[in-house]
Amino acid sequence: MLRVEHVMGFPVSVRVDAGAADPETAVAEVFAWLRQVDLRFSPFRPGSEVSRLDRGETPADELSPELSEILGLCEHYRVATRGAFDVRLPGRGLDPCAVVKGWSVQKAAEVLSAAGATRFCVNAGGDVVAAGGPWRVGVRHPERADRLCAVLDIADGAVATSARYERGDHILDGRTGRPVTGLLSLTVVAASLTEADATATAAFAMGAEGIEWAASREGCEVFAVDEGQRVFRTAGFPVARKAGL
């Protein structure tokens, strides 16, 4: 079972190979959930819960449990990075997208597991959560779209990358309000995409110092390329094949 849709601003592919009695229904539930997330938590939709909160129309004690969870994660990473990661930058509206993406796709994977799927892969704009591997996941070269710099072996877990190559200098250091320097890309492997995606973005926001910070996070393995094209890799990073820079 393979289905691809464009949702939340990027392509999402869901592949289910085994375990689910009714994979079509399970995959339909995944996309229904992701569309709901986009409607509820996108800062680009004036009627979303995030936008209403940002305008002061929703009291803090009336937030949905899901948005409370998202904001709690945002605050966790803000504190952990000493303000480098911040979803409330001066002069900008509340934007929790960096946490919402990984969180929501991890929840989507849990929908598949609850439906009995034992081997599946969800790819959301290049960030991946998978089960029942082995799965091969490529890490794109940070400066050349036609090359990989590594290929990973993933059994059960998630992979997320933060980089400049798709959207330019879109990640800002919350401590300075300026675009991050020092890194070209940073990839994190973790047990969940909630952790992998948020850690990758938060570490990237720290610049070069974020490599060591991400590597110190329990359960996280890291692959990073700095502006000098130097490669940093933790010992447990599951590289099946180095493609090189």
The CATH superfamily turns out to be ApbE-like domains
Low-pLDDT parts are: none
CATH architectural label? Roll
What is the total domain count?
A: 1
Beta strands, count = 13
N-to-C order of helices and strands: EEHHHHEEEEEEEEHHEEE
Based on CA atoms alone, the radius of gyration comes out at 18 Å
The biggest beta sheet, please?
8 strands, antiparallel
In CATH, what is the class? Alpha Beta
Strand content: 25-35%
- Total helical segments: 6
Mean pLDDT, all residues: 94
Structural class: alpha+beta
Helix content: 25-40%
Apparent shape: globular
**Order of strands across the widest beta sheet?**
1-2-3-4-7-10-11-12
Distance between the termini: 35 Å
**In CATH terms, what is the fold-level topology?**
T-fold
